[in-house]
């Protein structure tokens, strides 16, 4: 069994970040003892160096290994450079136990809200996914921008500019899980055999309607994927349960 915590949209700053909520979330996630934490972007509010410095201190509070991709807010004000300096590579690949691969993709563009993966990164993704298919790996792809519009988020403005091509690659390679953030609204779509899961905001006060700060937890066994939605300091409920894609 593999347990993954999926967090997103912290928005560390002096204005939009709720430190108390974040600290409660850290305690809850550490108590779950996940195998890893995946952070799908918008670590900071404005990409300022000082925000990244503060964010690194917060992220060190998680006990499990943490892997992050940048969001559109992180790419502001030269934040796309600071991310690599203080957080890590913007695109990456992790393979565990010889049968489990997680890939992080950078969908941000400097000083723009809209997302874009781009041809070079897309070609790299396709090559990596080809190997996953050949080796029969369980596969997760994480990126900030959603590849399919999210319900109850108003007028769609910030979907990936190359969403159609990326979505085709993800679904034709039967990626098991695609993890995103950006809209601050949790959601699950299933397209073909691919689960596309959006996380809410972990610790920002920029919340739509009655949505609360939350994070997702994935319980992955040999036969199924359980997705739990955890409200910080509140309820935890089963968000979805799906059979594994078995070869």
Give a description of the structure.
- This protein is an alpha/beta fold and 247 residues long.
- The chain has one domain: Purple Acid Phosphatase, chain A, domain 2 (4-Layer Sandwich), CATH 3.60.21.
- It has helices at 19-32, 49-59, 79-86, 119-134, 163-172; strands spanning 2-7, 36-40, 66-69, 92-96, 100-104, 138-142, 177-180, 187-191, 194-198, 214-220, 224-231, 236-243.
- The strands form 2 sheets. A 6-stranded mixed β-sheet has the order 3-2-1-10-11-12, with no helix packed on it. Strands 4-5-6-7-9-8 form a 6-stranded mixed β-sheet, with helices on one face.
- Strand 11 (224-231) and strand 12 form a beta hairpin.
- Helix 2 (49-59) runs parallel beside helix 3 (79-86).
What top-tier CATH class fits best? Alpha Beta
What's the N-to-C terminus distance?
Answer: 18 Å
The count of DSSP E runs of length 2 or more, i.e. the number of strands, is 12
Helix content: 10-25%
CATH architecture: 4-Layer Sandwich
* Rg calc: 16 Å
In the CATH hierarchy, the third-tier topology is known as: Purple Acid Phosphatase, chain A, domain 2
Largest pleated sheet: 6 strands, mixed
Oligomeric form: single chain
Q: From the helix content, strand content and strand pairing, which structural class follows?
A: alpha/beta
User: How many DSSP H or I helices?
Assistant: 5
Shape: globular
| Count of folded domains | 1
How much of the sequence lies in strands comes to 25-35%
* Mean residue pLDDT: 95
CATH superfamily: Metallo-dependent phosphatases
Q: Summarize the helix and strand pattern as letters.
A: EHEHEHEEHEHEEEEEE
């Amino acid at each position: 069994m593999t347990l993954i915590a999926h967090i997103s949209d912290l928005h560390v700053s002096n204005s939009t970040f709720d430190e108390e909520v974040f600290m409660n979330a850290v305690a809850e996630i550490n108590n779950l003892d996940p195998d890893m934490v995946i952070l799908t972007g918008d670590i900071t509010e404005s990409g300022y160096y000082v925000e990244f410095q503060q964010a690194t201190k917060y992220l060190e509070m998680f006990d499990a290994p943490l892997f992050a991709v940048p969001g559109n807010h992180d790419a502001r004000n030269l934040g796309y450079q600071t991310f690599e300096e203080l957080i890590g590579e913007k695109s990456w690949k992790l393979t565990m136990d010889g049968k489990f691969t997680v890939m992080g993709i950078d969908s941000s563009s400097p000083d723009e809200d809209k997302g874009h993966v781009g041809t070079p990164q897309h070609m790299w993704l396709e090559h990596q996914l080809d190997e996953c298919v050949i080796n029969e790996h369980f596969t997760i792809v994480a990126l900030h921008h959603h590849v399919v519009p999210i319900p109850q988020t108003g007028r769609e403005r910030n979907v990936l500019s190359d969403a159609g091509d990326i979505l085709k690659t993800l679904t034709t390679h039967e990626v098991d899980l695609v993890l995103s953030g950006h809209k601050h609204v949790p959601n699950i779509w299933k397209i073909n055999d691919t689960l596309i899961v959006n996380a809410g905001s972990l610790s920002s006060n920029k919340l739509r309607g009655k949505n609360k700060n939350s994070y997702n937890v994935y319980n992955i066994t040999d036969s199924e994927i359980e997705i739990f939605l955890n409200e910080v300091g509140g309820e935890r409920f089963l968000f979805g349960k799906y059979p594994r894609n078995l070869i």
